[in-house]
Amino acid sequence: MPHTSSTTQLRARTFRTMGTVVSLTVASGHYAQTAVDELESAAAVVEDKFSELDLSFSLYRNGSEASRLARGELTLAYASESMQALYAEASEWRLATGGAFTAERPDGTLDLSGIVKAHAVREAALSLEALGLRDWCLNAGGDVLVSGSPEPATEEPWLAGIVDPQDRQALLGAYPMSALRALATSGTAERGQHIWAIGGAATEFDQVSVAAADIVTADVLATAIVAGGTRTLDQAVEKWKVEVLAVRRDGTLLATSGFRKPA
Amino acid sequence: MATALASAGILLAGWQSGAHIADTGTATTTSLGSSASAAGGTTTGTSGSSSAASSGTKTTTTAATYDGTAVQTRFGTVQVRVTIQGGKITEVTALQLTDAERKSAQISSRAAPVLRSEVLQAQSADVQTVGGATVTSDAYLTSLQAALDAAHF
Fold first, then answer.
1. Could you tell me if A18 and A54 are in contact, meaning their C-beta atoms sit under 8 angstroms apart?
2. CB of A143 within 8 Å of any CB in chain B?
3. Interface residue B56 vs chain A (CB under 8 A)
4. CA distance A141 to A17
């Protein structure tokens, strides 16, 4: 691994949650033991936040609030405030994306899966900031939110590779995460069950990566563009400050300038 | 209609980059994309004459220009000029373009077809993290991210 500074080290901790794996990487120039203690406590805080949200929002847990809502045993009016707030946010995104993002399955079942993970990342980031951590990278199953730099006290951006959907051991490209701190990717390859193309047609894109200032915007728009295709992609780059890299079904690419090599 | 124009713009912008048009700044690229969208969507008659002319001039290096007809779009009047040299379109410019059309074209050309070699590249050893469509816990074990995490542990 490239450590351009001899004192800086990246240390990572991972845990399983929400059916995937979350990795927290912290850059630190501290003495080793201090840095490890700092990382351990930060990772514990992040894991707690994910576990807490997983308990109420996960549909694969039969007893979760989300499952009871989906089965109709509970109505939104009687749901927790955080459930109502996230559903309201999802509804706003549905409007803003012209229906390309939706928190309802085709059969009408309430399903916030498309936004819960990003919400958890957002909440975890608040916890990391509250701990006073400045230089970190949080990766939740392929969705990334960063703060600061891998080289503390420099302007060096965290560099995120983007996996090639046709060869998951290879990188399609990379994105330097400076102004836009969040990078989310949606695809049909691994877990496409929360994406339905509009009208039930085959999706135009195999994989869509969106960089945005915040992780929920990035995640929602990545999902929306997979579902809505080029039309939604054009609307997204018009409406939000985002960078997009989309892989068509035939393997060809569409990219905004942020994903291209500097001229 | 707007979507069709946008798609045509994207296709043509990509075709142009494939035709090794010299790299231009963002502003210029934008205007190329916008005029291209008008050409693709609206000037079928002209493109017929252009292709006939270009096949006739394939062996020469003399540049020839062709003006499309002025076409009313929802964004205003659009007319394009195509320059063909050595059988290839070397330039597409807009002769008439409203501000609204400019904005629309700017939008649609912001995500353009690119070759893989045109995307910012990196080896897995150069990146600190890996983004991708959500991996399951099982798939994580063999992922690039897992390798990075192990290296940083």
1. yes
2. yes
3. no
4. 9
Domain holding A157, by residue range, is 9-259
Query: Which residues of chain B neighbour A186 with C-beta distances below 8 Å?
Result: 133-134
Smallest CA–CA separation between B81 and chain A, in Å?
Answer: 25
Shortest distance between the Cα of B53 and any Cα of chain A, in A, equals: 31
Does the residue A120 lie in any domain? yes
Confidence label for A191 from pLDDT (cuts 50, 70 and 90)? very low
Q: What angle do CA A203, A208, B37 make, to 5 degrees?
A: 75
Q: Does A4 reside within a domain?
A: no
Half-sphere exposure of A152 (CA within 13 A, CB side): 16
Domain count, chain A: 1
Residue-wise pLDDT for A203-258, tens only, equals 899 999 999 999 999 999 999 999 999 999 999 999 999 999 999 999 999 999 99
Supply the ipTM of this predicted assembly.
0.88
Q: Global pTM?
A: 0.72
- CB of B10 less than 8 A from some CB of A: yes
Give residue-wise pLDDT tens across range B19-67. Answer: 333 333 333 333 333 333 333 333 333 333 333 334 443 444 677 877 7
pLDDT reported for residue B139:
87
Per-domain residue ranges of chain B: 2-118, 122-153
Q: Which of residues 189-208 of A touch B (CB under 8 A)?
A: 189-192, 207
Assigned domain for A169 exists: yes
Q: Of the candidates A161, A166, A177, A143, which has an alpha carbon nearest to the alpha carbon of residue A18? A: A143
Q: Is the pLDDT of residue B141 over 70?
A: yes
The contacts of residue A109 (CB under 8 Å, 6+ apart) are: A70
Q: Does B147 touch chain A (CB under 8 A)?
A: no
Q: Is A21 part of a structural domain of the chain?
A: yes
Longest dimension (CA), chain B: 65
Contact at CB, A259 and B120, closer than 8 angstroms: yes
